[in-house]
UniProtKB/TrEMBL annotation, chain A:
Residues 86-149 form the Glutaredoxin domain. Pfam families: Glutaredoxin (PF00462). It comes from the Eukaryota. GO terms for molecular function: 2 iron, 2 sulfur cluster binding; metal ion binding. Belongs to the glutaredoxin family. CGFS subfamily. It comes from Flemingia macrophylla. Keywords: 2Fe-2S, Iron, Iron-sulfur, Metal-binding, Redox-active center. Coiled coil: none annotated. The keyword Iron-sulfur applies. PANTHER family: GLUTAREDOXIN FAMILY MEMBER, MONOTHIOL GLUTAREDOXIN-S14, CHLOROPLASTIC. InterPro entries: Glutaredoxin, GRX_PICOT-like, Monothiol_GRX-rel, Thioredoxin-like_sf. The keyword Phosphoprotein does not apply. This is Glutaredoxin domain-containing protein.
From TrEMBL, chain B:
It comes from the Eukaryota. Its main location: plastid. Keywords: Chloroplast, Plastid, Transit peptide. It is found in: Plastid, Chloroplast. Belongs to the BolA/IbaG family. It comes from Flemingia macrophylla. SUPFAM superfamilies: BolA-like (SSF82657). The keyword Transit peptide applies. Pfam families: BolA. The keyword DNA repair does not apply. One of its GO terms (cellular component) is chloroplast. The lineage of its organism: Eukaryota, Viridiplantae, Streptophyta, Embryophyta, Tracheophyta. This is Bola-like protein.
């Protein structure tokens, strides 16, 4: 029998919020196991008549998960960044950014008339933590172009100023 | 550096800790670290948090960035500051150049 009493059960909050489809992939998950003690057969009845009763124990087995990036979430993220040419993981929405850095990138993309998918990481803390691992990048915004991590705000601004961003986006949108 | 060094480090301001971590690892010829947290106080992600020292601008000129893409350079800086990022450092604006890139045009 294995019990881990230290960590709380791992739960992910279900948030279904259109139009961002990614949130509907993060589901509530709890893990349980059961243990069953078996009644010994009659040949093993002891002379002092100790009877064992079968016990159905339902124990909450907890998994200490140090990674927010579950395989399911990873494959969801893979799908999101490959099915959309330009994806921005940001704080707030593209119409209501909630952070200056995120807003800067939104304004740059809007000024270039580039269609892009914007995903609000403030909505979902598990997603927020998972993305930091997924991108090996600890901050937001995070810009993906054609399935590859491009950079955060500083890198996007620099590339916009030297024209590299426009070049890359044009290639992405036309391909 | 033993635990004494770690305890001493914790007593320093975040800016000092950032400065010393980057300086020692990157042999920076130019290193500027500015705490701009007050410019971001009140925005969504830090609202309600009692942490100061949440947003910094960092400018580093280091030969170790030679041949590295911008993303790689930023990742190097983030990795060096991983502890800070786990303990309340919220955002970093990074300018990462090599000495060659900062030479004035002739």
């Amino acid at each position: 029998m294995w019990l881990c009493s230290c960590a709380k059960p791992l739960t992910l909050q279900l948030q279904s919020r259109p139009p961002s489809s990614i949130h509907s992939h993060v589901r509530r998950v709890t893990v349980t196991t059961s243990t069953l003690s078996l009644r010994p057969s009659s040949t093993h009845v002891f002379t002092h008549n100790v009877h064992f009763q079968p016990k159905l124990k339902r124990a909450s087995t907890t998994i200490r998960c140090s990674s927010a990036l579950t395989p399911q979430l990873k494959s969801t993220l893979d799908k999101v960044i490959t099915t959309n040419k330009v994806v921005l993981f940001m704080k707030g929405t593209k119409d209501f950014p909630q952070c200056g850095f995120s807003n800067t990138v939104v304004q740059i993309l809007k000024s270039l008339n580039v269609p892009f998918e914007a995903i609000d990481i403030l909505e979902n803390d598990m997603l927020r933590q998972a993305l930091k691992e997924y991108s090996s990048w600890p901050t937001f915004p995070q810009l993906y172009i054609e399935g590859e991590f491009f950079g955060g705000c500083d890198i996007t601004v620099e590339a916009y100023q030297n024209g590299q961003l426009q070049e890359l986006l044009e290639k992405a949108v036309l391909s | 550096m033993g635990s004494r060094g770690a305890a001493a480090a914790a007593a320093l301001s975040r800016a000092s800790r950032i400065r010393s971590k980057l300086q020692s690892a990157l042999e920076a010829t130019v290193l500027e670290v500015d705490d701009v947290s007050n410019q971001h106080a009140g925005h969504a992600a830090v609202r309600g948090s009692s942490d100061k020292e949440t947003h910094f601008n960092v400018k580093i000129v280091s030969p170790k960035f030679e041949g590295q893409s911008l993303v790689k350079r930023h990742r190097i800086v983030y990795d060096l500051l991983a502890d800070e990022l786990q303990s309340g450092l919220h955002a970093l604006s990074i300018v990462a150049k090599t000495p060659r890139e900062t030479k004035p045009a002739q």
